[in-house]
Design a protein that fits this description.
The chain has about 190 residues and is of the alpha/beta class. The protein is built from five helices and eight strands. Helix content is about 30%, strand content about 25%. GO terms for molecular function: lipoyl(octanoyl) transferase activity.
């Protein structure tokens, strides 16, 4: 059985709390409709308006409809980010075994993954560093991994890679990995 279609909601630049509220509305609507086969699967895309430049994706999916356990879902998100990196010209992108969840380029993390799954409905997701000011990571231990560096698509490709440039390869990779049809939606649908 083919997975259901996923509606892409492009939120643009948004404050974290606004994107979190939009995600919460999508999760609530999904749970309310979960008894029907018409539950609204969504992929929220947004760029934080704060001091980072990442493509952040929050899939709101019922994992039962996609036939995925939680660990399989994390692996699928890693596969999406790896495929997006490769489409952008970084064939060395790879997922590493736990505890190094995410996507890595020559030992540097380019994509962080952090999910939540309740009653089979996913929330949160991944952040793909596009043109991030990497000095901000000097003040934290990213993902709790001591001694690991963070990188960006721009650094690795040695040119500016905007969120807009990374979005279409990301969406193509998402559609391929999740074997689903993506449909454009309106941000007001969340």
């Amino acid at each position: 059985m083919r997975p259901p279609p996923v509606r892409v909601l492009r939120l643009g630049r948004a404050a974290y709390l606004d994107s979190l509220a939009a995600q919460g509305r999508c999760v609530r609507r999904h749970r309310e409709a979960s008894a029907s086969s018409e539950a609204p699967h969504r992929l929220l895309l947004w760029e934080p308006s704060g001091p980072v430049f990442t493509l952040v994706a929050y899939p709101v999916l019922d994992l039962r409809r996609f036939g995925l356990p939680v660990r399989g879902y994390v692996a699928a998100l890693e596969s999406v980010a790896v495929a997006a990196c490769r489409r952008l010209g970084l064939p060395q992108a790879a997922a590493l075994p736990p505890p190094c969840t995410g996507v890595w380029l020559r030992g540097r993390k380019v994509c962080a993954i952090g999910i939540h799954c309740g009653r089979h409905i996913t929330s949160h997701g991944l952040a793909l560093n596009c043109c991030t000011d990497l000095t901000w990571f000097d003040h934290i231990v990213p993902c709790g991994l001591e001694g690991k560096e963070v990188t960006s698509l721009s650094r690795e490709l040695q040119r500016h890679v905007s969120v807009e440039e990374a979005t279409e390869p990301f969406l193509a990779a998402f559609q391929e990995v999740f074997n689903c049809t993506l449909m454009e939606g309106s941000p007001t649908e969340n």
